[in-house]
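Sequence in, structure out. Go.
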Amino acid sequence: MGRKRVGWWEWKRRCSSKATCHKLDVTRRAMPLAQDQVRVKAQTLFREAWDQFQSEQWHQGEVSVKTALPLWRQLKDPYWTAMTAYSIGYSLDKQRQATGALAAFRESAQIRRQIGDRSGLIRSLNYMGELSQRLGRGAEALGHYQEVLVLSRAVRDRGFEAGALLDIGSTLETLARYEAGLRYAQAALPIFRAVQDEQGEAAALSTIGGIQYRLGNRRESLRFYEFALAKVRKIKAKTGEAFILSNLGYIHEYSGEFEAALQYFERNLTVYRKLGDKEGEAKCAANINRMKWKLKQQLKAVEDIRPRASW
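Output:
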C-alpha cells in the first residue's frame, strides 16, 4: 500500500505558518531527491567497476563495487545488492582470493534465492561450485552443482543443464566416484550437441576420456581424447588443445610408448609457444627431455640384451 494521502485541510492545519509550510514541502521533496542521488552514485560506481574489469584493473574494480554495495543496501534494492555482491566475488576471484570470492557469491546467492531470481541464482551457484572445487571442498561443490541442475531444468535452460551435468561428473571424478562421474558426463554430451555448444561438447569428450583412463579403459580413453582434440582444433580452442595433447602424451608415456608420447609433447610445445604460455612451454620442454632420456634408456636396454657375435 502507498503512503496515505494528506488532504488539503490537514495540510493547511500542519502548515500554520508560511515558514513551516515551506520547510515541510522541502522535506517531502528532498526525500526522493536524496534517494535518486544515492541511486545515481551507486549506478555510476557499478558502471565504473565493470569498465575497470574490462581493462583488467581488478583491484580498482573491487574498490568501486565495494563502495557501491552499502548504497544499494541503503536503497533496499535486493536485485542490485545481489548483482553488486556477485561482482565483488568476480573481482576477488580474478585476484585469486578464492575464500573471499566464495563469501561474496554466497551473499549474492542468498539474496537471489529470496527474491526468486533463478537465473541469477544459477550463476552464483555455478561460481560457488567452481570455487569450492578449487578449495578442495568436493562434497560442497557437488551440492552447489546439483542445485544448479535442478534449477536449470526448472527454467528449461538446456545449456546450463548440460554444464551442471558435466560439472557434477567432473566433481565425482575428483571424489574417486568414477562410474557415477562417467554417467553424468555421458548424459551431458548429447545435450551439448543438441544446443550446438561445441566448446561444451569438447569438454565433455575430454572428461569422458579422463574418467575412462581412471577406470582402466585405455583404448576408450584414447578414443575420446582424440575426438576432443579434433573438436578443439575445429573451434580453435588452443588452451583446450594444449591440455588434451598433454594428457595424450602422459597416457602413452605410462604405457611405455615413449616415441608416441614424445610426438604428442612436441606438438604440445608448439601450441604453448603460440599461446605465449612460458610456464606451459617450460613444463612441456621438461616432458620432451624426459621422453628422449627414456628412449635412450630403452635403446640401451635393447642393445644390452642383443646377442653378440662369437669369435
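Check: The CA atoms of residues 84 and 151 lie 22 Å apart. Residues 1-29 have pLDDT under 50 and may be disordered.
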